[in-house]
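Troubleshooting log. The previous structure file for this entry was overwritten by mistake, so regenerating from the original sequence record. Sequence copied from the archived sheet and checked twice against the printout by T.R.
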Amino acid sequence: NYYFKFEGPSFNIDTACSSSLAAIQLGCTSLWSGDCDTAVAGGLSVLTSPDLFSGLSQGQFLSKTGSCKTFDNDADGYCRADGVGT
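Regenerated output below.
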């Protein structure tokens, strides 16, 4: 906001893995409601803490095969990844 000299509201949103979605939804809602005529929205999630990974691994939350296999009888956990949404 300050660097580019944008005017209007500026938000920081932290909803863990859904931060990009929440930011983009807020931008769209502001456009649809007429609160602004232009919006810049986006977010990212970068996994930088080895402690978090270690805890999830020890708790056996992470997939040993590296594949989530959602709704499959062979599912053995989930996979973590970095992500960006704009």
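Residues 14-60 form one domain. Archived copy saved in two places this time.
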